[in-house]
């Protein structure tokens, strides 16, 4: 069974599975989902808890088997939590997970009675390889998989508004409020834990009711945290202002110009190879595979590739080559001599090309 965060409350109201897999890279949302499952389980008599972190290479997997098999001394039921930071249980761990999945499947077949043990498995974001592994599919069939997606930038204003509402606060109605929430989102983008803390701070500083933009500006720190994928996506969408802001944020965080250039140049080269394949009559799906484009970027490339032309992409390839030389200490007479300025110009050129 596959679940998303919005589906979790209704799911718990209907009943409790014998095991849950939580996977994702957003600690705040994972913790909130975990707290919700624990609270619901405690209400059903799961008052004892054992936790394991399977991080060491010589981890004793038999301890988890014993914990799931033994009867609680002080309560009728208990929760067993297993955190796997690497997402790789190894051969012994895989065998243990399959065995525990078989036990959970048997509980399901016994008419839906509550199990003596509730198993919670915490993983990093599960990629395709992990999801297709025998141990993961066995667990999925025996329980529920909760995918914890990060809050996208476009959804951040609504997420912030919901959190403010929960503590009795709001922003002005109409465009003014939307602008305030957008400002708030810009300040905390990519750092959901900081966003949560800033919302809580507003509850301490101001009474319930409407907040002004001035109040939020005075309280909220600029705690945005960006990733290389954020920069790539913003450039491919032609978002000039946001791309420059992300570039500045990454440089301020100490990201190496070489890595930033590698991401941008990789996108440019992939677009060029994709365009060449399309010009030769290759179908778009096959062209995307040949250009080594997959995952989240696939839809972005599908969106921009049909309207891009090879001469424009050739110029971008040449610009990326120039910036590569500047990063290596080889200045160009028509370009800024510092990597920072060169990256700014490359980002601007990519965004302009995507806007055609």
TrEMBL record:
<dbReference type="InterPro" id="IPR027417">
    <property type="entry name" value="P-loop_NTPase"/>
</dbReference>
<dbReference type="InterPro" id="IPR010372">
    <property type="entry name" value="DNA_pol3_delta_N"/>
</dbReference>
<dbReference type="GO" id="GO:0003887">
    <property type="term" value="F:DNA-directed DNA polymerase activity"/>
</dbReference>
<dbReference type="InterPro" id="IPR005790">
    <property type="entry name" value="DNA_polIII_delta"/>
</dbReference>
<dbReference type="GO" id="GO:0009360">
    <property type="term" value="C:DNA polymerase III complex"/>
</dbReference>
<dbReference type="GO" id="GO:0006261">
    <property type="term" value="P:DNA-templated DNA replication"/>
</dbReference>
<comment type="similarity">
    <text>Belongs to the DNA polymerase HolA subunit family.</text>
</comment>
<feature type="domain" description="DNA polymerase III delta N-terminal">
    <location>
        <begin position="20"/>
        <end position="147"/>
    </location>
</feature>
<keyword id="KW-0548">Nucleotidyltransferase</keyword>
<dbReference type="GO" id="GO:0003677">
    <property type="term" value="F:DNA binding"/>
</dbReference>
<dbReference type="InterPro" id="IPR008921">
    <property type="entry name" value="DNA_pol3_clamp-load_cplx_C"/>
</dbReference>
<keyword id="KW-0239">DNA-directed DNA polymerase</keyword>
<keyword id="KW-0235">DNA replication</keyword>
<dbReference type="Pfam" id="PF06144">
    <property type="entry name" value="DNA_pol3_delta"/>
</dbReference>
<protein>
    <recommendedName>
        <fullName>DNA polymerase III subunit delta</fullName>
        <ecNumber>2.7.7.7</ecNumber>
    </recommendedName>
</protein>
<keyword id="KW-0808">Transferase</keyword>
